[in-house]
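Shape is hard to put into words, and the shape of a protein is harder than most. The fold becomes a row of whole numbers, each drawn from a learned catalogue of backbone shapes. The outcome of that step, for a single protein, is printed below.
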Amino acid sequence: MSVQSVHMEGAGDPVPRNAEGIAAALSGARRMEFYRELLAAAPQEAEAVLRHWWCEAVLDADQTHGDQLAAAALAGTLPLTSVADAIEARRAAGLPVE
């Protein structure tokens, strides 16, 4: 099994990894959907909701990059990495592995 590797240029996250940053990057209707999901989530589910919507916000914040990713995915030209390599990279970066 393999996953698609996405490399974003520039330092830091393009969207702050918090509710305020995520909401600011989303359009009005999607922002309301995000807040609805976040407010309805149990405390143990809130992190997963934030993680999901952060990904959506990154694509919304940089539509050009999102369009390039979609085109590369459709063309089959996205670079691939193994799941094991992706897990190891997350561990090396001190990120959670679920």
